[in-house]
Amino acid sequence: MDKEILEFIRNNKIASLSCCADNKPHCFNCFYLYWPEEECIIFKSGEQTEHMRIMLENPLVAGTILPGEVSYLKIIGMQLEGVVNHDSDLHARAVKLYYIHNPMAMAMPGKIWVIQLTKLKYSSTIAGIKKKLEWVR
Questions:
Q1: How far apart are the C-alpha atoms of 35 and 32, rounded to whole Å?
Q2: Which of 40, 39, 35 lies closest to 1 in space, CA to CA?
Q3: CB neighbours (10 Å) of residue 120?
Q4: What's the CA gap between 4 and 7, in Å, rounded?
Q5: Per-residue confidence band for 73, with pLDDT thresholds at 50, 70 and 90
Q6: Predicted local distance difference test score (pLDDT) of residue 122
Q7: Residues 120, 63 contacting (CB under 8 angstroms)
Q8: Tally of helices (H runs) and strands (E runs) in the chain
Q9: How far is the C-alpha of 52 from the C-alpha of 39, rounded, in Å?
Q10: Which domains does the chain have, with CATH numbers?
Q11: Looking at residues 42-54, what average pLDDT do you find?
Q12: How far apart are the C-alpha atoms of 31 and 41, rounded to whole Å?
């Protein structure tokens, strides 16, 4: 994975994700942790939410990650695609990792979810200079 892509995904924490059921899209935002060894993002959400109900039926996910500050002179962002992973071993390791990095999240209700990334597209336009980088699993 390109160093610039890796740095961007590590330095940001909020993703806007989309899923789809019955030809109807659904979007939500989540606080995520990037897991570079498994090329996954980990997040916490309630099992009864609409987006988790949808993703249990259709595990394909798309989304974006944007930095906290955006301006017209510096437009940076990432598009992503992935699949919700239900592997029990991977999930158990993800839970431990998530709570090590986010101990306050233990006090919040919900379950840890893992999205195995399949494609990333990083775009950067700074002072009119455009750059696009892609990573595919």
A1: 10
A2: 39
A3: 23
A4: 5
A5: confident
A6: 95
A7: no
A8: 3, 7
A9: 21
A10: 3-136 (2.30.110.10)
A11: 89
A12: 10
